[in-house]
Amino acid sequence: MKKWEENIRQVTPYVPGEQPQEENIIKLNTNENPYPPTRKAVEAYLTTDFTKLGLYPDPTASELVGALEKYYGLEEGQVTVGAGSDDVLSLSFLTFFNSDKPILFPDVTYSFYPVWAEVYRIPYECPPLDKDFRIRPEDYKKENGGIVIANPNAPTSLGMASSEIEEILQANPDVIVIVDEAYVDFGGESMLPLLSRYENLLIVRTYSKSRSLAGMRIGFAMGSKELIQALRNVQASINSYPLTRETIRVGSAALEDEEMFQKNLKRVLHTREWAKKELEQRGFLVLDSQTNFLFARHERVSGQRLFEKLRDRGIYVRHFNGERIREYLRITVGTKEQMERLVSTLDELL
Ligand code: PMP
């Protein structure tokens, strides 16, 4: 081994779902939204002033931050933004988890959490979900250096009641509790109403799922002014301009078209419930989703086999090899037509 190799930070990276380039595939593997973003968002994108592209964007993205504070009824200084919620979450780990005690997150959850913990050298422990894949609040009442909970959880699709998260907050006044609400718009219970009562609560959200803007990379955090200032300080110490000019414009404009936003959400929810029933009729056990994806296992055919067979037929879903979940598929809710294709393909396969 060369001497300098000792100084290299060795990490096993997070592997996102594939982004296949072929045409005509059905992509149900990364929980993107099958519908277009709102008209106002598209208009803002198309009217970007390209003569200004030679200038740096606003480092604090104040237009977008202000629009989010207004939309969520928060005060100035309670929101910060980043390049997708992965960026915001990663910086939150770096900012808030600086203890020798382990941080806590469930054994089955967003698989980026252990990767950030490893890369930042944060000790962690993973209390197991119960046999029905539910998070048990009592597991989060021991000494720890911080907590992160995805609510609703991924890949299980199950949400916790806000009273259960409040139980966790009450037991943990001395650490930061991060609630990752990436999927909350699809039927989860938001912790927003608790923000005014818990200064140690940080809520992280994304434009990638409910707002159909995964390609723009917009995420944001909401919390007490003290938490947000601490996060901004770390952000500004790493990247002065995390969001592009057009991203800031599109992100603000996207909040203006509530009607179209709600309409798209309803379409996803409607298709989700339809697809759940269809899968159940074909021998799948499907968890009660509060997200834009279904977590399902077949009574006879293994998860790996179904994943491969579907992929051979141009339908991409997500399969994880973790011990407890390897029989499951995580299937993003696409358009009704895409889900019909999924169901008819399963009829050929099963
Ligand atoms: N949190 C959870 C639970 C997710 O599933 C995802 C999507 N992979 C993210 C955060 C990150 O999404 P984005 O970076 O696109 O905002």
Give a description of the structure:
- This protein has 350 residues and is an alpha/beta fold.
- 33% of the residues lie in helices and 13% in strands.
- The chain contains 10 helices and 12 strands.
- The strands form 4 sheets. The protein has a 5-stranded mixed β-sheet with strand order 2-8-7-6-5, with helices on both faces. The chain has a 3-stranded antiparallel β-sheet with strand order 9-10-12, covered by helices on one side. A two-stranded parallel ribbon has the order 1-11.
- Strand 9 and strand 10 form a beta hairpin.
- It is globular.
Keywords:
binds 4'-deoxy-4'-aminopyridoxal-5'-phosphate; five-stranded mixed sheet; three-stranded antiparallel sheet; 10 helices; 33% helix; 350 residues; alpha/beta
Strand content: 5-15%
Low-confidence stretches: none
Helix content: 25-40%
Main sheet record:
5 strands, mixed
Q: Count the strands?
A: 12
* Spatial arrangement of strands, main beta sheet: 2-8-7-6-5
Small-molecule components bound: 4'-deoxy-4'-aminopyridoxal-5'-phosphate
Based on CA atoms alone, the radius of gyration comes out at: 21 Å
Q: With helices defined by DSSP (H or I, 4 residues minimum), what is the helix count?
A: 10
Helical/strand content category: alpha/beta
Globular, elongated, flat, extended or rod-shaped: what is the shape? globular
Output mean pLDDT: 97
Topology:
Elements: E1 26-27, H1 39-46, H2 62-71, E2 79-82, H3 84-96, E3 103-104, H4 113-119, E4 124-125, E5 147-150, H5 162-171, E6 177-180, E7 201-206, E8 219-223, H6 225-236, H7 245-253, H8 258-281, E9 284-286, E10 293-298, H9 303-312, E11 315-316, E12 328-332, H10 336-349
Parallel strand pairs: 1-11, 3-4, 5-6, 6-7
Antiparallel strand pairs: 2-8, 7-8, 9-10, 10-12
Helix pairs in contact: 1-7, 2-7, 3-6, 8-10
